[in-house]
Amino acid sequence: MKFKMITVLIWSILVIGPPIIAWRQLSIVAEKNIFETIIEFDNKFQTRDSIEFTFLVASYSTILTLILGVPLAWNLGRYKWRYGTFLRSLFTVPFVMPSILVAMGFLSLLDWFEVLFGINDSQNLRFYLLLLSHAWFNLALVVRLCEPILSTIDSSYEESAFLLPMGNSKFKRFKNLWLPLLWPNILASASLTFIFSFTSFALVKFIVPTKRNLEIVMSNQAEWAGIDIPALGQTPSEIILASSSIQLLTIIIALAISSKLQSKSFGHQLSSLDDKRIDVSFFSKRGLYIITMLILIILPLISLILSSFLIRNGGSISWTTKGWSAAFGGTHSPTNMYQALYSSIKYATISIMISLPIGFMLSDIINQLERKDSILAVILDIVVMLPLALSAVMVGLGVLVGIIRTDPEIARSWWIPIYGHIMITTPFVVRVLLPAMRNLDPDLEFSAALLGAGYFKRLIKIKIPILTHSIIVSSSLVFAISLGEFGSSWVVLRFTEFTTLPVMIGDILSRPGFDPLVRSAANAAGSTLLLMTLILFICVEKFRPVGSGGDF
Predict the structure, then answer these.
(1) How far are the Cα atoms of 149, 345, 393, 416 from residue 491, in angstroms, in the given order?
(2) N or C of the chain: less Cβ packing under 10 Å?
(3) Which CATH architecture has domain 1-28+321-552?
(4) How confident is the model over 514-548, as pLDDT tens digits?
């Protein structure tokens, strides 16, 4: 029990400590309280219209995601498709794709539209492309939250509704059967989509570089924030103090709404463990729809890979491998792809070694507290998920301002970014393992305890073997998220020699565009990261059983 309490204490300190130190330092340098900085926020030229733009993009992106995602979740949940596991993987893999790859994929699409159709690269087109990229990225949220209920509810319920006056038409069945079942999950996915669109960094930074949301504003001011020199640090500290406060409050409200809505979902009461989907062929109207959505999903990925071999120089176009040579040679970045890939894999491996045990222990503690109906279970669950209420950029700033500023000597230490990776990945471990632990029969452990088995013996002999699939899924998720982590790493690593692959790609894309090799080299590095993430996620998808959703 002492070991568990130590785990909770360490996690709480890691989560709460650096942001509190950071906010305190920012308040001291800003010489203003949070309310004053928020009131004056939109008056500064560095932040003007950023709040409006952030909320506008998040709202429009959420609406577009639901328009595309709900029909997709319905067709995946109610109908059984050939190669269903592979199909489900493709539709949910965008969410674990590094956001910088999503940006590069849609930028590559923009290039191809201009090459093939002569479509001009206008700001309006880029804005719509940003909304589409957010919808593409967040489709998996709608699918994961809605598809499991649809796939396990027996069709006899719909047949019974068909015989009743309140269900004798498709519209009435949708209104009186499916909508009451699905609306909590739909709105919960909408809340989560709003959060991820609200905290979007790489997509906004590269697709609409002339615009600024709160993430971009904070990253632009990170270099001087917290420095106790009024001429340099005061304004950046004011801006970040206000930005992070607005962002934190908004995300906490959205998370609370999502949690409340998911608790109202009662679709699981009508579900079974059996697959209740209806067989359907691709040679049908539904099949045509699925194929169309597949094209939407894979088009940015294919265009990214093809663009790595394409060089545009003025009006001429040539196919070449010079972009790959530039990426591996490091001629357009501070490091080459070998070194960046090594750093990415190193940080991802360390993240698994730390996040998985911590997440497993936290999940076990929450599960045991829930069985006792303790309010501490809710409190601990909130503390565990708190890093998701902070954007990746804010996590990086928490390290940079809260830790590095206290001891400049450690600013260039290789292990500094690990903190950000652990904070971002551990909540996903809990979201995968906790639902699986809730399904365990408590009598198994109770019987083993009566036979004299201690905690660690029960852990090795009972829990780990039963939870093997969930552990594999959570490990792969940690690896994929850590491999593509960009926001906090961009803030912390961009001035060091420990550059990861996403940071290397961001550095290349930030260079002037007059060199025709710049975009090709970035696409080559991105294609490498894309293939690694795609192969990893598809291989692991088979471990997720039908009906398991909402927990990634």
Answers:
(1) 40, 19, 7, 11
(2) N
(3) Orthogonal Bundle (1.10)
(4) 677 888 888 888 888 888 888 887 777 666 655 45
Q: Does the domain at residues 32-307 carry the CATH identifier 1.10.8.60?
A: no
Residues in the chain: 552
> pLDDT tens digits, residue range 144-162?
778 777 776 766 666 676 7
Phi-psi region of 120 (alpha: psi -120 to 50; beta: other; left: phi over 0): beta
Question: What integer best gives the mean pLDDT of the chain?
Answer: 79
Asked whether the CA dihedral 213, 216, 220, 225 is positive or negative, the reply is positive
Decide if 393 contacts 467 (C-beta within 8 A).
no
Give the domain ranges of the chain: 1-28+321-552, 32-307
| pLDDT at residue 125 in the model | 87
Helix (H) or strand (E) holding 175, with range, is none
Going from the C-alpha of 283 to that of each of 80, 288, 291, 298, the distances in angstroms are 13, 7, 10, 20
**The pair of three-digit structure tokens given for residue 145, joined into one six-digit string:** 């939250």
**Burial profile 2-16: b = 16 or more Cβ within 10 angstroms, e = fewer:** eeeeebbeebeeebe
Hey, which residues does 317 pair with through a beta bridge? 312
Q: Considering only CA atoms, which of 380, 381, 408, 411 is closest in space to residue 396?
A: 411
- Number of Cβ within 10 Å of residue 272's Cβ equals 11
Say what the pLDDT of residue 268 is: 47
Contacts of 68 (CB under 8 A, 6+ apart): 135, 139, 293, 296
In whole angstroms, give the CA distance from residue 185 to residue 382.
Answer: 19
Q: Which residues contact 28 (CB under 8 A, 6 or more apart)?
A: 228
Identify the segments of the chain with pLDDT beneath 50: 266-269, 271, 273, 547, 549-550
Residue 54 CB partners (closer than 8 Å, separation 6+): 198, 213, 214
Tokens of 1: 């029990």
How far is 158 from 169, CA to CA, in rounded Å?
11
Task: Find how far residue 297's CA is from the centre of its chain.
Answer: 17
Nearest to 473 by CA among 502, 508, 434: 434
Domains 1-28+321-552 and 32-307 share a fold: yes
What is the rounded CA–CA span in Å between residue 62 and residue 42? 24
Task: Report the alpha-carbon distance of residue 363 to residue 277 in Å, rounded.
Answer: 31
Helix (H) or strand (E) holding 308: none
Q: What is the percent of the chain with per-residue pLDDT over 90, rounded to a whole number?
A: 12
Residues with Cβ within 8 Å of residue 251, at least 6 apart in sequence:
195, 198, 199, 388, 389, 390, 391
Write 222-230 long-range contacts (CB < 8 A, 24+): 222/393, 222/396, 222/397, 222/400, 222/401, 222/491, 225/26, 225/29, 225/397, 225/400, 225/401, 226/22, 226/25, 226/26, 226/29, 226/400, 226/401, 226/405, 227/29, 227/405, 228/28, 228/29, 230/29, 230/31
pLDDT in the model for residue 282: 83
Phi, psi of 226 (to 5 degrees): 85, -10
